[in-house]
Amino acid sequence: AAEAGNLDDFKSLYQADNTRLLLQDGKGRTAAHQAASRNRAAEAGNLDDFKSLYQADNTRLLLQDGKGRTAAHQAASRNRVNILRYIRDQNGDFNIKDNAGNTPIHMAVECDSRDALEFLLSIPVDTSILNDKKQAPVHLATELNRVEALRVMGKYRNVIDIQQGGEHGRTALHLAAIYDHEECARILITEFDACPRKACNNGYYPIHEAAKNASSKTMEVFLQ
């Protein structure tokens, strides 16, 4: 059922006893392995192959591999805009989380897949979803110092809550200060209009975090 991609059949087989998900076929493959084999078509970016797997039943787009990733996650990570466009046309879910709480747009940020990132923002997808580390996509971009990805996000700042708090209520600007990512801080202030006077849950402003972490380059940005 996993290989065929019929979600209703798959649920009927496994929902009563999810330990069946560990059962292996003659080659030692579980249901997750079968889903992963389909997701490889998304990674490869061959649209014809991808369509042949999914067009008969677009609920197959919801199948997740062993890491909880769907075809949309894989396409986003590999910058396959053609696959993402097809998934959108099939009303696919771009807000589904993998096992780490990441959505496809998180994957686009993490893998620096800027074309995919821009496409997802243009739909737009939900940019406020936090992963298991309490990171929205803009937090992740800042922590990883994805400067160009952050610039892409700046073009769609109207769909991003730049003052959203993540772990401990820290905004993206707090993270730029903690990691001394001065160019990220500059972009957040000039392109997103991020407020330096937004306190986290511990009462610290971004400039306090810069001082605590000896982030001299970011401190200069704040003092300009």
Automatic annotation (TrEMBL):
<dbReference type="Pfam" id="PF12796">
    <property type="entry name" value="Ank_2"/>
</dbReference>
<keyword id="KW-0040">ANK repeat</keyword>
<protein>
    <submittedName>
        <fullName>Uncharacterized protein</fullName>
    </submittedName>
</protein>
<dbReference type="InterPro" id="IPR002110">
    <property type="entry name" value="Ankyrin_rpt"/>
</dbReference>
<dbReference type="InterPro" id="IPR036770">
    <property type="entry name" value="Ankyrin_rpt-contain_sf"/>
</dbReference>
<dbReference type="InterPro" id="IPR050776">
    <property type="entry name" value="Ank_Repeat/CDKN_Inhibitor"/>
</dbReference>
<keyword id="KW-0677">Repeat</keyword>
